[in-house]
Amino acid sequence: MQLSDTEIVSAIRQGHESAFEQMFRTYYERLCQYANSLLKDEDEAEEMVQTVFMSIWEKRSDLEITLSLKAYLYRAVHNHCLNKIKHYQVREAHREYSLSYQSPGYEAVTETIYGSELEERIEEAVNRLPEQCQLVFRMSRFEELKYQEIADRLGLSIKTVENQIGKALRILRSELADYLPSLLWLVLLFF
Questions:
Q1: Hey, which end of the chain has fewer CB within 10 Å, N or C?
Q2: Domains of the chain, first to last
């Protein structure tokens, strides 16, 4: 029996795996094709779509979809792909900078290792944020949602969203204090 979008969302929110499976079977291939049209990489496209579905399942109890389910899924995949593309662009810009402005050899290798370590430390620091703080921060910085959009999706006040972002930035600043000089260019690019 085919469920409506509203019934699917409601059933998923209640933890019904069959509804989630129906959604997955209905949209997975088309979403992968869409992601691939953006990323031009089938493996990355599949990873983005799987990430979206995993996120939906993990946060199912808070799932609020005001548009159609199809529109929500395509928008989520679109946002994840754009974040991936931005990540590629930042990496490429850093690589080009390193090649253009640094002498080859020891310093370039050291900078590459330091950059990879920095990326790992940032991700680890974000993962250690309190759950709601992390969710709000990721929605703001990685999904590029406005504070009002985040507040609407999560049923929070804008003030709470602002407080959570402020808290996240304070914690990250503290956690990444050793890397602050290197983070300056990252802050200027993203924040």
A1: N
A2: 1-78 (1.10.1740), 102-191 (1.10.10.10)
